[in-house]
Amino acid sequence: MDAIRGDIRSVRYPLTGEFLAGRLREHLDENDLDYIEGLVETVEDHADGTRLLERGDVTNKSTMLIEGYVFRTIESGDRRYIVGVQVPGDFIDLHGFALKRLDHSIVAAGPVKIGSVSHESLRTVMQERPNIARAMWFATLLDASIHRKWIQILEQLDAPKRIAHLYAELHKRLELIGRNVPRALRTPFTQLDLADMCGVSAIHANRAVGKLRDLGVAEIRRGDLYTDDWDRLKRYARFNADYLYGDGALKLDQGWD
Amino acid sequence: MDAIRGDIRSVRYPLTGEFLAGRLREHLDENDLDYIEGLVETVEDHADGTRLLERGDVTNKSTMLIEGYVFRTIESGDRRYIVGVQVPGDFIDLHGFALKRLDHSIVAAGPVKIGSVSHESLRTVMQERPNIARAMWFATLLDASIHRKWIQILEQLDAPKRIAHLYAELHKRLELIGRNVPRALRTPFTQLDLADMCGVSAIHANRAVGKLRDLGVAEIRRGDLYTDDWDRLKRYARFNADYLYGDGALKLDQGWD
DNA sequence: ACATAAAGCTAACATGCGTTAATGGACCTT
DNA sequence: AAGGTCCATTAACGCATGTTAGCTTTATGT
Prior knowledge:
The structure is a homodimer.
Chain A: H1 30-39, E1 42-46, E2 51-53, E3 61-76, E4 79-86, H2 95-98, E5 105-118, H3 119-128, H4 130-156, H5 159-176, E6 184-185, H6 191-198, H7 202-215, E7 219-221, E8 224-226, H8 230-236
Antiparallel strand pairs in A: 1-5, 2-5, 3-4, 3-5, 6-8, 7-8
Helix pairs in contact in A: 5-7, 5-8, 6-7
Chain A binds a DNA duplex through helix 7.
């Protein structure tokens, strides 16, 4: 494995590419986005499977995902449990800024590009840029909302619907950062990855993928999902995007600034 | 059902009782705690099952749980999914301060006592009391950490272990706010509540309770759990308290103030 | 082109969990 | 004390999922 091969379309910033701001983008102006851009001190490529952060780590910088996917994982016994996925533009350890140590590990799912911001810089942000600070708090609250949805999904849906919901969520999250996915959503996920996200065995994840194929809902091959009817897939998965707060969920109208 | 009957032991504050600060307590001094106390504008009692907040609500105040338990619920189809539980001292809708609307409902589990803080007051706090603001961010990050653990639990454990883990978690969380539970952990949870928290049917929750009894791990009667060996129960549930950050997890040592 | 490893696929059997139905027990109301 | 309601319990049967094993396909490196 070597460095990233994925294409970065229409690069906006010389250093990090256009998606740095990610989910913050909607809530900040050009000025703030430039300011954040200036905070990034280093940009690195890492290969598939790289363990970027370990549970228990104490950090002095926070990391933003610029390109690729990462898993939030907790290992227990000899198995891995994936408790979250991040897409480009997401901070992946903003909680490491406020919490002493990390409660879970971060592992690259496929090749990734990441940027680092020192906690020292973040402290300055907290003091001097209250609206950016607020947007960062929003970002961690959105993570919590996504966590709650995952809990509901695990309680409510069977394995095929869980997998469909996962792709429906990614489809929407990519759309929210300006990446429209027309027909094929490409990911580096193996069926074992899907299994570890859905809390089922790899064999059963394979059955579930087969069922989605048989039903005509979607074709998943080596992580890439193909469908001509995203609406049908989302209906099948009982997907409702409200929890992603895509419509400017931040409360801006009550004199925050 | 009528108003609260639970005892409030060793009341510290005249208005709200000693546990107002809850999980914030460890990270703030007397001065800050008094300040928070002063923010509480109203205190109310509500009966079991009261829907305190609805998914989709837009709020202008945030609520702290003073006495009792509440569920975070998402309804879908004709079933209810419980995605979280809060104990006394927890803010239950701090995210409603930063997010435009709530992504889930809050329902009283048994009789509760709650206090309200206006968002206007919170905005003042954010500006004038950075260490309190930080503690509140911490509180929401801790919720996210608990959510991740629930995801792992649902992916990893079968129904009996999920129930054991739930009580183990509550046991620890109560300890962290100064309420040591010696032998019996009393809750108002029905077996249907346990089922909705664990993502299983009520019948299967009943089987799981029976298995815990047969194994001698714990006896659960009408929500109250009895055991003479909490360590054994926690081992059975693979409980590890790290994710609750009970040891002062907030990063205080790097010039936050 | 070939060898190898990783990933995907299939089958058979065991177990966890859902569903329906019916019974029993605890608490509340009158 | 009687009746009613909510909750807990048990049994029987079917489906979802785990486990073990072996096989096939695809990607990758030489």
